[in-house]
Amino acid sequence: MSHEKHAETSREHPRKRRFRPRANWGILLWLTVVWVFLWGDLTFANVVIGAFLAVLVTAVLPLPATPFDGRFRPWGVVLLAAYFLWDVVKASIEVATIALRREPPRGAVIRVRLRSHNDVYLTTVAGMTTLVPGSVVIEAHRVTGTLYLHILDVDMHGGLERAHDAVLDQEERILRAFASKEELVAAGLVPGSSARAGKLQGRSGRRGGSDARREVGA
């Protein structure tokens, strides 16, 4: 009888389900940070609105499930953020200089084959590369892990070779911040939080060779 009473009580008073966001907290935090950066003003209202929009967007337009077995490395994240902010500041000054000079910029489209085929890292590299002034990803092939990006001025990037290597350096910092040990080894990198850990001997981790860089008319 007591069991039947408990069952009836449970039906009469169903437990309230707690609200759980469809995206993980890392995604919500990242979207909130992006919103604050877009407004360029760190205020309580911007943070609250950004968090609300992050929850709303991920609930209405959820991202497809993506396999991710990475590992969070605090020092790798610090280096990634520091280098990224430096690249943004440096590129902003260089783009402003180009705008003031008389000669037109000599643009190019380059192809870079990344070390990793993981969609998470491919998207992160493409996004962070596009956020740096003077470069924008115009096409991405997820199957081959290839990015095509337009650079505003070849000289500003130090030549095609340096522009190509800059994307791979960005990918390496992302991998060292978030990739698992197995993913780092597969990319030809010695596991560690910084580039000082080095690369595996006999495996450069780069694909595409000299054919991976092409210059076209801007």
How would you describe this structure to a colleague?
The chain has 218 residues and is mainly alpha-helical. It folds into two domains: 1-63, no CATH class; 72-212, no CATH class. The chain contains seven helices and three strands. The chain has helices at 2-12, 25-39, 44-60, 74-100, 119-131, 160-178, 181-186, and strands spanning 108-113, 135-141, 146-151. The chain has a three-stranded antiparallel beta sheet, covered by helices on one side. Strand 2 and strand 3 (146-151) form a beta hairpin. Helix 2 crosses helix 3, helix 4 packs antiparallel against helix 6 (160-178) and helix 5 crosses helix 6 (160-178). The longest helix is centred in the middle third of the chain and has 27 residues, at 74-100. The chain starts with a helix and ends in a 32-residue tail after the last helix. Mean pLDDT is 81; it is low at 204-218.
How many β strands by DSSP? 3
Fraction of residues in helices?
40-55%
- Structural class, from secondary structure content? mainly alpha
Number of DSSP helical runs: 7
Number of domains: 2
Biggest sheet overview:
3 strands, antiparallel
- Major beta sheet, strand line-up: 1-3-2
Shape: globular
Would you tell me the overall average pLDDT? 81
Unreliable parts = 204-218
Pattern of helices and strands: HHHHEHEEHH
Strand content: 5-15%
- Rg, Cα atoms, Å: 22 Å
- End-to-end CA span: 82 Å
What are the SSEs and their pairings?
Layout: H1 2-12, H2 25-39, H3 44-60, H4 74-100, E1 108-113, H5 119-131, E2 135-141, E3 146-151, H6 160-178, H7 181-186
Antiparallel strand pairs: 1-3, 2-3
Helix pairs in contact: 2-3, 4-6, 5-6
